[in-house]
Amino acid sequence: MGRPIGAITRGTTGHNRLRRADRWIAAVHGRLLRSADRPLVVDLGYGASHTTTLELFLRLRRVCPPVEVVGIEIDPARVAAAKPYERPGLSFALGGFELPVSRPPLLVRAFNVLRQYGEAEAWDHWTMLRGGVAPGGVIVEGTCSEVGHRAVWAGLDGSGPRTLTFSTRFGGFERPSDLAERLPKALIHRNVPGEPIHAFLRDFDHAWAVNAPLSPYGSRQRWISAVRMLSRTWPVVERPPLGGPARWRLGELTLPWAAVAPGLTGGPDRH
């Protein structure tokens, strides 16, 4: 095997940091995993601790008992530290974006690994990952806060990015645009006037403000009402498993990627 592709991350991690993404993966892609005879999932760049990879394994086993999970890290010391926690169906390996596993994975989770790259590099790594998954496979790539209360992730398949999901803990933000700092690398520098993602966050903030009278009933009711208002002008996904009240109640909102895809402002249109 050649040298792993990528750069070492800070490695910050912690218990339940990725619970929101794991919950979404299990609900949205559980059927995909169950459709395979030997479903393989890769947790790319799990960090200085095996914790979030183990949590992903345990959560996915509840919806797909035969699933196998491989945690991949580019730092040999981190892999060595995780090895004692291996068990049947869970293993750890040295590698990077080239995905050095025995067979193409059906799903790749990659969180907090592209923040250190430029936008063009991030698109290139997306392309590499898309080429490494099994036919019909998916990639969930995003960023979350240190304790996981704010997260945004893109859902990709072999054709490119398909969805963008916002997820937040109620009480963990003042207005929806606070999640802008967690946008994927492909969008975070596009949050400027003239770009779709900027217009979306502006409109989300407006819907949140208009629904302030619902605050006495709790942030959950205010969020649901704001999302319904937003859906009048934006193609918010409303049908399960990606959308609808059941997901909105969890502090989630999913859009088709095409609705917020980068325009020509600030660089080449690569979507």
Automatic annotation (TrEMBL):
Recorded superkingdom: Bacteria
SUPFAM superfamilies: S-adenosyl-L-methionine-dependent methyltransferases
Identification of the protein by name: SAM-dependent methyltransferase
Organism of this sequence: Streptosporangium album
